[in-house]
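User: Let's play a game. I give you a shape written as C-alpha cells, and you guess the letters that built it. Ready? Here's round one.
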C-alpha cells in the first residue's frame, strides 16, 4: 500500500514537472515566476531585516542597485542578436545549397507518399504526420491479417505486435487532430510515438521466428514506415526550434525596452524620501522597488522559460533511429 502511494505521489510530481517544463504556456509561467519573486521580495521586509529606506539612505539612492540591471539587460539584448544570427544562419546559403534542401524535402515527401499509398500528402505538418500514422496503422492491420499464416507461437507474437503498433499509431493520430504547427502541440504529440522501440520490436520478431516470406515482407514494410517517422519528427522539431527561438528573440526585445526605461526612472528619481507611508505594515518604498526589480528581471525570466522547454524537448528526443536512450524516456 505504501509503495502504491509512493508511486502515485511520484506520478503526480512527474506530471507537475512535465506540465511546468513543457505544457504550461510560457507567458503564464513567466508571470507566475515573476509573481513569486515579487511576493518573496515584499515578504522579506517582514523578517526583521534592515529596512530598505535605511539602506537607501546609506547608499544615497537607487543607482547602486539598478545600474547593474542596465548592464544585464543590454547584455541580454546582445544574446538576442546572437540567437537571431544562429536562426538566420540556417536559412542563408547559396542557390545550390537551397536547391539541395528543396530536392531532399521533395524526395522525402515522395518516398512517404509511395510508402503509404497516397498520391499527394498534405503540406500542413500535423496533417502530414497524421497521414503517415494512418499508413502505419493500415500496415499493422495488413500484418495482423497476413500473420495468420504463421505457426501458433509466431502468430501470437505477430498479433500482439500489430495490435500495439496500430493502437499507438491511432492514439497519436487522434491526439494530432486539433494540433497546429506554430504551437507546441504538434511536437508534444509526436514525442509520444516511440517509434524506436517499435522498430526494435519488429526486427526482433523477425529474428526470433521462422516466418513465411509474405509475413516477413509485411514486417519489413512496417519497419520501413516507422523509419520515416524519425526524420519527420526531427525535421518538424528543427522548424519548431527555429520558430520558438524567433518568438523568444522578439519577446526579449519587447521586454528589454520597458525594463531599461523603468531602471532609468528608479536611478534618476527614487531615493529614501520617495514613496513615504506604508500599506499592510509594509513600506510603500518596498512595494514599488520590489515591482521595479520584477520588471528588471523579467527579460531573464522570459528567456529561461522559453529555453527550458527547448532544451527539455531536445533531451527527450536525443535518439533518432533504432537507438533508445534513457534520457529519451524520461519526463525531464
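Assistant: Ready! My guess for every position:
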Amino acid at each position: 500500500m505504501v509503495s502504491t502511494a509512493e508511486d502515485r505521489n511520484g506520478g503526480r510530481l512527474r506530471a507537475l514537472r512535465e506540465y511546468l517544463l513543457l505544457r504550461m504556456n510560457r507567458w503564464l509561467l513567466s508571470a507566475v515566476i515573476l509573481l513569486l519573486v515579487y511576493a518573496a521580495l515584499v515578504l522579506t521586509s517582514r523578517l526583521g531585516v534592515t529596512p530598505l529606506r535605511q539602506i537607501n539612505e546609506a547608499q544615497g539612492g537607487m543607482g547602486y542597485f539598478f545600474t547593474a540591471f542596465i548592464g544585464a539587460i543590454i547584455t541580454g539584448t546582445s544574446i538576442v542578436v546572437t540567437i537571431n544570427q544562429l536562426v538566420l544562419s540556417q536559412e542563408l546559403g547559396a542557390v545550390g545549397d537551397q536547391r539541395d534542401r528543396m530536392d531532399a524535402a521533395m524526395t522525402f515527401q515522395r518516398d512517404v507518399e509511395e510508402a503509404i499509398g497516397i498520391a499527394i500528402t498534405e503540406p500542413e505538418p500535423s496533417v502530414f504526420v497524421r497521414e503517415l500514422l494512418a499508413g502505419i496503422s493500415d500496415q499493422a492491420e495488413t500484418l495482423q491479417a497476413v500473420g495468420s499464416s504463421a505457426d501458433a507461437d509466431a502468430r501470437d507474437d505477430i498479433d500482439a505486435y500489430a495490435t500495439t503498433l496500430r493502437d499507438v499509431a491511432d492514439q497519436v493520430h487522434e491526439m494530432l487532430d486539433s494540433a497546429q504547427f506554430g504551437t507546441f502541440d504538434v511536437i508534444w504529440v509526436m514525442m509520444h510515438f516511440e517509434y524506436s522501440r517499435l522498430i526494435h520490436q519488429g526486427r526482433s520478431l523477425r529474428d526470433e521466428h521462422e516466418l513465411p516470406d509474405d509475413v516477413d515482407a509485411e514486417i519489413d514494410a512496417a519497419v520501413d514506415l516507422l523509419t520515416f517517422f524519425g526524420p519527420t519528427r526531427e525535421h518538424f522539431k528543427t522548424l519548431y526550434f527555429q520558430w520558438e527561438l524567433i518568438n523568444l528573440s522578439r519577446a526579449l526585445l519587447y521586454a528589454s525596452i520597458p525594463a531599461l526605461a523603468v531602471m532609468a526612472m528608479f536611478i534618476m528619481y527614487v531615493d529614501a524620501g520617495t514613496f513615504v507611508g506604508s500599506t499592510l505594515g509594509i513600506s510603500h518604498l518596498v512595494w514599488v522597488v520590489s515591482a521595479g526589480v520584477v520588471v528588471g528581471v523579467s527579460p531573464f525570466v522570459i528567456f529561461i522559460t522559453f529555453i527550458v522547454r527547448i532544451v527539455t524537448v531536445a533531451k527527450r528526443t536525443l535518439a533518432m533511429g533504432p537507438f533508445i536512450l534513457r534520457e529519451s524516456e524520461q519526463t525531464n
